[in-house]
């Protein structure tokens, strides 16, 4: 596990095998598993599991999507949430993003300070 604010990418030993699985099987098993270890206030991320609600992970995973491309998809999602794919655990977060952006930004900043900032950093 990394320190606060440090990204951690864990690639399972069977990663290559999973990317070669036929699409019908990938859709049944949910495609690739990607999650955050840090609590993040975001419409597409479950605060309880860190699971990311992105169609690319659930339905459209194909072997040619590189780790770099996947991380870019996630980066873009963090910048601009996709409210159509809001995680069911955080429907209220999606509503706040849509209807009260100032409150959303304030809450997200509070969560960042609480969960992702190193309390010993200066």
TrEMBL record:
Domain UBC core: 1-117
Transmembrane stretches, start-end: none
Family annotation (SMART domains): UBCc
Stated name of the protein: UBC core domain-containing protein
A Pfam family assignment: UQ_con
Classification via SUPFAM superfamilies: UBC-like
InterPro entries: UBC, UBQ-conjugating_enzyme/RWD
Lineage: superkingdom: Eukaryota
């Amino acid at each position: 596990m990394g320190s606060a604010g440090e990204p951690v990418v864990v690639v399972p030993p069977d990663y290559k095998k999973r990317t070669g699985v036929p699409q019908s099987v990938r859709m049944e098993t949910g495609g690739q598993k990607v999650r955050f270890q840090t609590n993040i206030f975001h419409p597409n991320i479950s605060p309880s599991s860190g699971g990311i609600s992105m169609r690319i992970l659930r339905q459209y995973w194909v072997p040619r999507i590189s780790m770099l491309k996947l991380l870019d998809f996630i980066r873009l999602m963090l910048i601009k949430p996709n409210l159509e794919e809001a995680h069911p655990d955080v429907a209220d977060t999606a509503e706040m993003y849509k209807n009260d952006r100032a409150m959303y930004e304030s809450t997200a900043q509070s969560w960042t300070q609480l969960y992702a900032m190193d309390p010993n950093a200066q």
